Amino acid sequence: MLKVSGKELTEEFSLQKALNSCGEDIEVSACVHKVKKMGGFAFVIIRTARYLIQTVYSPDTCADSLDGIREGCFVKVVGTVKADDRAYNGIELTLKSIELLHKPSYEYPLKVSQRRLGCSLDVNLDNRSVSLRNPYERAVFKFQEGVVEAFRNFMLENSFTEIHTPKIVAQGAEGGANKFRLEYFEKEAFLNQSPQFYKQAAVAFFDRVFEIAPVYRAEKHSTSRHLNEYIGLDFEMGYINDMYDVMNMETAMLRYMMNYLKENYAPEIKILGADIPEITEIPCVRFEEAVTLIKGSRAKNKFDLEPEDEVFLCNYAKENYGTEFIFVTNFPSSKPPFYAMNDKEDPRTACKFDLLFRGLEITTGGQRIHDYEEQLEKMRAQGLDPEDFKSYLEIHKYGMPPHGGLGIGLERLVMKLLGLANVRQTSMFPRDINRLLP
């Protein structure tokens, strides 16, 4: 019987380790990104999980032939490390051997080795298994990893417990018709629109919780800002004084995140040309004031913000406060969600906020209702039957601390940090009204 214990784990390529190994031989397993033949020698650019590495092939120094080695081949190379500021990432390998591990059966349908693919978004998405081999396209999702990692690290450092909630549910947290229905044995069920009900419940026993998970919206939109499946960065916190505690927590988290990205994802920031903002304080404006700023008649929707309103308010924040973020608070209380607490000083408004960034809503949050009778009253005021929410209402029946939280759309946040035009560019395999493959 074979045993695997006792063997060392296979190491992934480390750029820092390579930089510290000048004059020494190292072994790298990678994909051939490009071959540039120069007469008596050749540059073989290889692609590791994160980096491009320039190697130099010469029949005088390499024991193997380049016959059959082309773009897309997977290889194992051994080479001597040399520092070279002109090369990718400041190092070059003089090849001593190159072993072919696998040769693809077909040529790439896209120009993977170019800096940018130069194709339409639809062609990019239709050929996702190839397009993501392009260093620029791939860097988007390495950068996205950094956003998620920073969010998780900040939450854990601030005493939040990570939870994992169901995605098959009996009722939608957001209500309305934008729910995906599915057959669940002999019952009707839905794909969850939000972890809202569950993260509120978890506050009763964990005080502070967060989740990073997919959410589903059956909205028949085909815009540059909508997906039907996206990743939500959610948190909920108990023992708050008001919604401003939640807003302050998000501000601190975003400040931590931007610094974390700069410190740990500099290669991706360089490849993508990302403009990472400095965050000190984030201004806020009440919805009523925002409508006035937008000059009344131009504000088409008296209960919510339109896309052009979000752009206007972000420009206003940049011009007047030197920031690309702005909170909008106190939306009309008659507008969902039903779990948003009404403002005690002005019951016409709810303790609800949106965070706008570079012309787009990236966060919705606020203070939730924790009192049982108050929650029943709000449901009835919005035409809902409390009997339909018996399970949810149990958290109120048995007591809750004052609490609030928020949800951030990961793809929207990354889209704006990278200055991209379409949210599908920040979804590895996007799902929208027209796309179910690949």
Overall number of strands: 16
| CATH class term of the largest domain | Alpha Beta
Structural class: alpha+beta
CATH topology of the largest domain: BirA Bifunctional Protein, domain 2
Structure overview:
By secondary structure, the chain is α+β, with helices and mostly antiparallel strands. It has helices at 15-19, 121-126, 128-131, 135-157, 196-206, 243-264, 266-272, 287-293, 307-321, 372-381, 390-397, 410-418; strands at residues 25-37, 42-47, 52-57, 74-83, 91-102, 161-162, 168-169, 181-184, 187-191, 208-216, 229-238, 284-286, 325-329, 352-357, 360-367, 403-409. The chain has two domains: 15-102, OB fold (Dihydrolipoamide Acetyltransferase, E2P) (Beta Barrel), CATH 2.40.50.140; 135-426, Bira Bifunctional Protein, Domain 2 (BirA Bifunctional Protein, domain 2), CATH 3.30.930.10. Helix content is 29%, strand content 25%. Strands 6-10-11-16-15-14-13-12 form an eight-stranded mixed β-sheet, with helices on both faces. Strands 1-2-3-5-4 form a five-stranded mixed beta barrel. Helix 4 (135-157) crosses helix 7 (266-272) and helix 4 crosses helix 12. The mean pLDDT is 94.
Short description:
The protein is an alpha+beta fold and 438 residues long. The chain is 29% helix and 25% strand.
